[in-house]
Amino acid sequence: MARNIGAVCRRCRRENLKLFLKGDRCYSDKCAFERRAFGPGQHGQSRFRKLSDYAVQLREKQKVKSMYGMLEKQFRLTFDRAERQKGVTGENLLVLLERRLDNTAFRAGFASSRDQARQVVRHGHILVNGKKVNIPSYLISENDVITLKEKSRANAIINESLEAVARRGVPSWLELDKDAYKATVKAMPNREEMTMPIQEQLIVELYSK
Q1: At CA 70, angle to CA 116 and CA 114, rounded to 5?
Q2: What digits encode the pLDDT tens for the residues 13-52?
Q3: 37 in helix, strand or coil?
Q4: Domain that holds residue 165
Q5: In total, how many domains does the chain have?
Q6: Which of 87, 98, 54 is nearest to 207 (CA)?
Q7: Backbone angles phi, psi at 186, to 5 degrees
Q8: How far is CA 27 from CA 60, 96, 119, 128, 159, in A?
């Protein structure tokens, strides 16, 4: 499976925004973005240059791809699916990204980052409605129940993530039962709860060229 193996913290510095890609480290004084809040590379501290409209659109797409840990082909396929659905394409795109199983596992607190959540899913720790699902891009639906496999409940990393989930909060469309290692999808994700500064219309404009 193809994946981005580049330096994670460089992505935050490139987008000039903390993307919370390394879990608890992003909340500590070890965060590279806090220590070096300028672009990566030897010209990272050079004077700001005005970006063209295309560059602004491209950076917005790259930012969202980095947030959800996706490569171009998979991201474009998700956009194409959003475009075919009824409603606003940009909002459809963000809802589809939120519905991914790796993102849902992260939101529920089974992992401290989306990258870690992807590993948790791929290694078969997650059950959906009682059945093992090891596909990170699997789309959850309303009333789905996501649980941790019985043998995985002693995993120290997962338990640490569950203890720290209160720091970032659980979205209202999920109901978490920490004692039962269970999260229930009460409703579909909605745009209003996505607090990261995303301008999805720029992505729509980029792909519509």
Answers
A1: 20
A2: 565 665 655 555 555 565 655 556 655 555 455 545 677 8
A3: coil
A4: 99-191
A5: 1
A6: 54
A7: -80, -30
A8: 23, 27, 21, 30, 18
Cβ atoms of 103 and 170 closer than 8 Å: no
> Is 32 within a domain?
no
pLDDT of residue 198: 87
**Distance, CA of 118 to CA of 102 (rounded, Å):** 5
Residue 136 CB neighbours (<10 A): 23
CA–CA separation, 153 and 191 (whole Å) = 32
For residue 136, being part of any structural domain is answered with yes
Which tokens hold the place of 13? 């510095």
Q: Is residue 173 part of a domain?
A: yes
Residue 142, domain CATH:
3.10.290.10
Most confident of 14-28, 101-115, 188-202: 101-115
Tell me, rounded to whole angstroms, the distance of Cα 42 from its chain centroid: 29
DSSP letter for each residue of 160-171: HHHHHHHHH---
Give a yes or no: residue 57 inside a domain: no
Distance of CA 94 to the CA centre of its chain: 10
Backbone angles phi, psi at 137, to 5 degrees: -85, 0
CA 192 to chain centre: 16
CA 101 distance to own-chain centroid: 10
